[in-house]
Amino acid sequence: MPRPAHHVASLARFAAHRERREREDASVMSELTGVPLGLPAGLDVAWLGVAGYRLTYEGQSIYLDPYVSRVSLRDSLRGRPALPDPALIERHIRPPGDVLGVLVGHTHFDHAIDVPAIARRFDCPAYGSDSLQRLMALHGEAERAVHVEPHRAYELGPFTVTFVPSVHSKLLLGYKVPYDGELTCEHLDGLKTGAYRCGQVYGIHIEVAGATLYHQGSANLLDDEIRHRGVDVFLAGIAGRSFTPDYWRRIIGALEPRTIVASHFDDFFRPVDAPLGFSLNVNLASFPEEIEAVTRDVTVAAMTPST
């Protein structure tokens, strides 16, 4: 079956059996959340939902793709501005100590909306692409933006961070990246969800406390750009993996991870305070089997959102 027809058929099967599929996803998630990550003493990894994480060590934290000001599907379709919600940020972005920086893998709305407000609140830099720099400038925070250099090691307290050039999965039936290109919006009231263009995409490698982690917000990669092997924990955004040919074999072969933690499978249009739901046809239930088909030497896990 041609790939576009395959994706359409997969979506149709999901629609026909949605309730059963979501029960299966919930059952597998329950099993995976009990799997220990084997982190060093003192290192805490918290999943914020979607592709967002907080890593904390010795009272110092970094954030990756944090997104708590959830835009409803209705507001997105109506073209309303998608902006940070200060009350939700104050309620849910509560680090146990200092915040050293916010790291951004790409600038789609579900990865970048809250970054300028979090950087302002905690008086810290935001690291990412040229599109992130433009987003920060729109919010009057240009001086806090760090336009990263690929493969350069950035020292943030106990964390050593490296941005690895990558690409976004082609979610539009395997043909196109949604909202591709650079963010060019010139006014905050024009920042609708579609104005948050993808920009340059990065995987993010992190060393801390003798452990290594790799964050990939979208399920695609540039094979030759990955230079870190033997990653302890791979924080894997799994939405869109079916649109990337041979994704798991390629990324596992490149990173050689010990543990893979699934994320970006939840419904990011749902309010952050609501019970977790699952994104359209994400199929979390098949995630462990997909990994096992490549290797039996990797532990698979998931986390409960902590905001």
Using only C-alpha atoms, the radius of gyration works out to 18 Å
Q: Count the domains.
A: 1
- From the helix content, strand content and strand pairing, which structural class follows? alpha/beta
CATH architectural type = 4-Layer Sandwich
**CATH fourth-tier homologous superfamily:** Ribonuclease Z/Hydroxyacylglutathione hydrolase-like
Average pLDDT works out at 94
Give the topology string: H per helix, E per strand: HHEEEHHEHHEHEEEEEEHEHE
CATH class: Alpha Beta
Return residue spans where pLDDT drops below 50 for at least 5 consecutive residues. none
Q: Give the overall form.
A: globular
As laid out across the biggest beta sheet, the strand order is 7-8-9-10-11-12-13
**Sheet with the most strands, sense and barrel status:** 7 strands, mixed
Q: Indicate the percent of residues in helices.
A: 25-40%
With helices defined by DSSP (H or I, 4 residues minimum), what is the helix count?
A: 9
Sheet-strand content, in percent, reads 15-25%
Rounded to the nearest angstrom, the distance between the terminal CA atoms is: 42 Å
